[in-house]
Amino acid sequence: MISRFITHTLSLLFGASLVWLLLKREPPVVSGAALPIAARPPAAQFESASSVFPAVQESSRQADRSESPTAETSLDVILGTRDPVARLDALTKWAQELASTGADGVPLLKAIKNKVLRQAAEAAFYSTLAQSDAGLAFRLASANGLTADSMAWGALYERLTMQSPSGAAAALGRLPPGALRSRLTNTVAGTWAERNLGAAVQWASTLNAADKSAALATIFEAGASQSAIGVAAIAVSLPAGKSRNDAISAVGNHMALQNPEDALAWAGSLAEGDNDAAFRGVLSRLSTQDPKTAAQWLDKLPTGRSKRELAQEIAGQMALNDPKDALAWLQQRGEATSGPSVAPVLWVMGEESPDIALTTFEANLSDPSLADQTAHLAESLVEKIGGEGAMARALALKDDAAREAMVGKIAKQWALIDPAAAWQKARQSPELLTTMIPSLASAAPTSVSQNLAALPQSVQSQVAPYLAGSMAKVDPAGAAKLLVQYPSNDPSWTEAADAISAAWADLDPAAAAFASLGMKGALGENIRGKAVESWLGEDVKGACEWIEKLPPGTSKDKTITTLVHYAMTTDPEHAGSWLSLVSDPSVRASLQQQIVQAQAQIRIK
Fold it and tell me: Which is it for the CA torsion 470, 475, 476, 480, positive or negative?
């Protein structure tokens, strides 16, 4: 039973692991490994894309095929390098050299089992190959499992748009909607605009609403560098709506970079509505060049969201020269107690005059828009007046919510700089300890763990989840023991359990799976589930043998459920071969139904 299932699944890799941990490990190499089909773009989406690019010129891809054994040997040596930085650097250079072999290099890339390392090698390989033959690189990537999240797609589309913007746009239309297509849409838009603005606008106008606005803004900003007046006329001629406003704003922004006076005159000449969008772009740029002039022109805008947002930008730029002048300008406008406008001033003032910044901040404590400034202010206060003084200032705040937020931020910064002093201060007050402990556990887990026994029992239970979460990547086994010792229904305990499970499953899934059998409750189930998933991705045979030897019962049923779900993705035809080992009839029936549905969907496709 096992052998048939393994035969159909050994060549499929189950997914990605934590980046940092995988870079630190010594990854094994499995020949012919590939990601699950669902994790990569369907080849059908690209099958006709090759027609828009030049045909493969085999004469330009001549290479010494005798180098392949050397390349394989070099890869083994590189993957055996224990220094993660040196390994990644060597792997990148190796992949760049491998690109000279063209299609012959793909099997070596696919043999890299570690997803993070494989993607780094793919990016270097396809980017280098695309420099000499973008069409070949695109076809190889589409046909040989280059995943949708691969970094290599960006390099490929950069080359493709340089060769043929219309061809790149045609290929782009076959990508599934998502962040990748949106990002690459802007790449195509900017390159096409530099070559043929009218054609680029016509193409962008056919896109969906979200992609259209972003593409047109990119197009008009790029086109303005060629002929600002001509581009401005095209922008104003677009149909009314967000795309038109964004395009006009982009043109104004670029015109202000070239000639602020002409840009302001152009914005003032436009009809109502259009001039608001134009001034928004012009003043946004002008605020970085001449904030005082931008401030004088600001009053020409009608009251509204754009005007408030520009006031924030201008105030922030004025504060770079003199925070007090910026604050005075806001007071003159009657916005001294307006959080959004004060926020950028505080950002700069926190570095120059943290005491004044805190006083200003205290006057705006109820404004939620200032929440992002607490971290910067805390950092400045600790740097300027020390952790002890900063904490005293924070504790003196009258607003409860603001005091708690500032104390937490100062505690985090103080713990990073001087964890011993922060720990001593925290121990003086149970309330302060509760507030500071998450930051202390994250910044100095060793110090906290050494002093854990000295804390009251109730505080130990509060500290344990934060400490375990901080220890997860470094010592997941020790972190798990800590959670076993201090069980809790608190959300922080659940978060720590998830972090430990994920880290341990990636670091050593086999060890995590074995250890989970001795843990009761949610923690053991969580660790076991994630460990089995990761183990199946690395060693299907070993994981299956371990699962089969488990004693009958709930734990085995849940583990087989994980296995069956994995098989439904990689080999649905034989996923049902494990159902006979499920003890609970209801679980067996549920899995059977899921398998039938999965197989039916495949037949429909």
Answer: negative
Strands (E), 143-297: none
- In this prediction the pTM is 0.41
Kind and range of the H or E run holding 314: helix 305-321
Q: What is the DSSP string of 543-577?
A: HHHHHHHSPSSHHHHHHHHHHHHHHHHH-GGGGGG
Give alpha helix (H) positions in 427-520.
430-443, 445-451, 457-471, 476-485, 491-507, 509-516
CA–CA distance from 14 to each of 110, 566, 601 (Å)? 14, 8, 20
Distance (Å, whole) CA 24 – CA 85: 9
- Lookup: tokens for 119: 């993607």
Amino acid found at 286: L
Angle, CA of 331, 333 and 336, to the nearest 5°: 35
Q: What is the pLDDT of residue 291?
A: 84
Q: Quick check: helix, strand or coil at residue 505?
A: helix
The phi and psi torsions of 150 (rounded to 5 degrees) equal -70, 140
Written as six digits, the tokens of 401 are 């919510």
550: left (phi over 0), alpha (psi -120 to 50) or beta: beta
Which residues partner with 34 through β-bridges? 12
Q: Which of 254, 256, 251, 218 is nearest to 237 (CA)?
A: 251
Provide φ and ψ at 394, rounded to 5°.
-65, -45
Q: Are 176 and 41 in contact (CB under 8 A)?
A: yes
* pLDDT recorded at residue 23: 31
Q: Taking a C-beta distance cutoff of 8 angstroms, is the pair 116, 22 a contact? A: yes
Helix-, strand-, coil-residue percentages of the chain, each rounded to 5: 80, 0, 20
CA distances from 300 to 93, 253, 276, 303 (A): 56, 17, 9, 9
Closest CA to 433 of 464, 470, 462, 396: 462
pLDDT along the chain (605 residues), means of 10: 39 31 32 28 34 36 41 78 83 90 86 82 86 80 71 76 80 76 83 81 83 80 65 77 80 81 84 81 83 80 68 78 77 58 67 72 64 74 86 82 80 82 79 72 70 74 79 83 84 86 89 88 88 88 90 90 86 83 91 84 63
75 vs 107: CA distance, rounded Å: 12
Q: What is the pLDDT of residue 54?
A: 40
Calpha distance 373→342 (Å, rounded):
10
Mean pLDDT, all residues of the chain: 75
Q: Nearest Cα to 565, choosing from 543, 544, 537, 594?
A: 594
